[in-house]
């Protein structure tokens, strides 16, 4: 069995002075200052993270470019795979982000608006560079394609854009299948409902995607501790677990999580 990856993530925005800063929130709202992106990247590299994710959380919503200067400085501090997302809309954006030091790009809104971008990016730079991010939320109506049972109710999962602020009407599972067919190398599955709650990953969401595709799936949103990582690996079949708050605020270290998983026979890189 392949080792499961533990991935810290920083959500980066511009502060009141226009400087990049890390923020942490709940359900993609109520963001609070957490730290400097370059310093945090350096700490996570030293702490034994398997990969690192840098998300410019307002670039797409604000219609601005990703902060590539900061990406370059982060890339200088990490010697593990670096994924960068936010504001990436074109093949040229992908090229410039990789040139700045990213190993992979995470794309959400632009791929939904023009799915051919996945095909073009995979052909030009390789599937391994293309991470398709999905910001999913539950809907309890009859508009979806695939349904799951959650607490005795039937729901489907809708792709959203602009940090969960806008629905698209697109079913997450259908979109995951299309993204895979177009050359996505990984799927980055975020739950709007679970984001920042520390109540655990959205297992029905993650399992629905994992069951539908063979492409590696990164589970994101809601991790409150090592037991949640264990659950999303063993019950949903995720290939990687992403977390922010538990690492940012020193509730658990990366090593704490890996030791917990290793003790329970989940393969990890120690």
From TrEMBL:
Q: In which pathway does it act?
A: Amino-acid biosynthesis; L-histidine biosynthesis; L-histidine from 5-phospho-alpha-D-ribose 1-diphosphate: step 5/9
An annotated GO cellular component: cytoplasm
Q: What is its EC number?
A: 4.3.2.10
| Active-site residues annotated for this sequence | 11, 135
Question: What keyword terms does UniProt attach to this protein?
Answer: Amino-acid biosynthesis, Cytoplasm, Histidine biosynthesis, Lyase
**Localization per record:** Cytoplasm
User: What's this protein's name?
Assistant: Imidazole glycerol phosphate synthase subunit HisF
| Species in which this protein is naturally found | Haloprofundus marisrubri
């Amino acid at each position: 069995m392949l080792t499961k990856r533990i991935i810290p993530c920083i959500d980066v925005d511009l502060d009141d002075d226009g400087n990049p800063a890390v923020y942490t929130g709940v359900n993609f709202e109520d963001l609070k200052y957490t730290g400097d992106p370059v310093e945090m990247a350096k700490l996570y590299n030293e702490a034994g993270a398997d990969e690192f994710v840098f998300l410019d959380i307002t670039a797409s919503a604000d219609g601005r470019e990703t902060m590539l200067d900061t990406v370059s400085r982060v890339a200088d501090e990490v010697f593990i795979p670096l994924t960068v997302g936010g504001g990436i809309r074109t093949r040229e954006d992908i090229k410039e982000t990789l040139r700045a030091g990213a190993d992979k790009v995470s794309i959400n809104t632009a791929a939904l608006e023009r799915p051919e971008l996945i095909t073009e990016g995979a052909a030009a730079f390789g599937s391994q560079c293309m991470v398709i991010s999905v910001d999913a939320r539950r809907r309890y109506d009859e508009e979806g394609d695939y349904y799951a049972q959650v607490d005795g109710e039937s729901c489907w999962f809708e792709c959203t854009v602009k940090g969960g602020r806008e629905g698209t009407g697109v079913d997450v599972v259908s979109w995951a299948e299309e993204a895979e067919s177009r050359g996505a190398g990984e799927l980055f599955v975020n739950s709007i409902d679970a984001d920042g709650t520390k109540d655990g990953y959205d297992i029905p969401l993650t399992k629905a995607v994992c069951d539908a595709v063979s492409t590696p799936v990164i589970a994101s949103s809601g991790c409150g501790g090592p037991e949640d990582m264990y659950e999303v690996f063993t019950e949903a079949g995720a290939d990687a677990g992403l977390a922010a708050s538990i690492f940012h605020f020193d509730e658990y270290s990366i090593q704490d999580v890996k030791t917990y998983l290793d003790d329970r026979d989940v393969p990890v890189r120690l």
